[in-house]
Write a structure and sequence with these properties.
The protein is an alpha/beta fold. It has a single domain, classed as HUPs (Rossmann fold), CATH 3.40.50.620. The chain contains seven helices and four strands. The protein has helices at about 10-20, 40-55, 70-75, 80-100, 120-130, 145-155, 165-175, and strands spanning about 1-5, 25-30, 60, 105-110. The longest helix is centred in the middle third of the chain and has 19 residues, at about 80-100. The model has no long low-confidence stretch (mean pLDDT about 95).
Amino acid sequence: MKILLHACCGPCSVKCAESLLAEDIRPALFWYNPNIHPVTEYLSRKNALAQYAGAAGLELIQRDEYGLRPFIAGIFPDFDRRCDYCYRLRLDAAASYGAQHGYEAFCTTLLISPYQNHDRIRAIASQISERRRIPFLYRDFRPLFREGQQAARRMGLYMQKYCGCIFSEEDRYIRRPAARPQ
């Protein structure tokens, strides 16, 4: 099966890709994350994913668009619902690319994080799947999260400290609970 795996970063990709490979599914990694800020963080995550893809022998497709201004414009003024916008933005780009380039399905590494809202990701991806006419391959990768983080550390991959957007960075340093999609 030829699938496109939206990849938010190198560490989250490790066990997602390994799990799919164990099912005889060879994913191509798809980098599109205009939500990640600041630009130094964006570049660190993009480079870590490239490092992982090279080490794992996986194809990496990069839609390299650092998007601070468009991302902020997209979530304004409802900053507390930013996660829905973020999921939709990235998953729609993956589904669109996948449909246009003959992939049989799309998936995302966001599904490994216990900090992400799986119900919202799944619902949004299902809507996009219908509109783009490409199946969404759902997998609950969360049981592999800690193992994936350990593997990423052993590989020397950059390990981020927050979800990605400037607001999640603010939440981390102020120690406020992150806003979750309704």
